[in-house]
Design a protein that fits this description.
Blueprint (H helix, E strand, L loop, with lengths): L1 H15 L2 E8 L4 H20 L3 E8 L20 H16 L3 E5 H6 L12 E3 L2 H10 L3 E5 L1
Helix pairs in contact: 2-3
Amino acid sequence: MKKALIILILFTSVLSAELYKAVFDCSSSNPRYIVSRMLLIEKTKNMMQKDGDEVDFALTLHGGCVTMVSKNYDFIVKDEDIKYIKKAQQTIKKLSKDGVKITVCAMSLAANSIDKEDVVPFVHISKNSYIDTIKYQNHGYALMPLK
């Protein structure tokens, strides 16, 4: 009887699990805001998974948000902002390891004087992150703008 009840509870839990699909689109150039949003993405993902839900997240980066993907961000970021960019980069590395797909826009890299060779290896370089964001939306991902 106990085994049947446990199996029923587990089965009901699986049936009620949600799939959350979202693309977070970051264009902000404010390092404090960027790190706060990266930490919020991580916290949100963890909360959903703790509740037994499935998470399929993507992060697209363009505009001023791309500095955090550079191996040499200390050359392109103000000294007082380095600690925020460093923390943001640590967080997106962890997110990447946890299955979040991270894409940076090649046009924004060029606009911010970041060579493609300087991009951290866990980030995919796209010719245009708008195209990626549109594709995600066309596949049912909720758009979460970070400006």
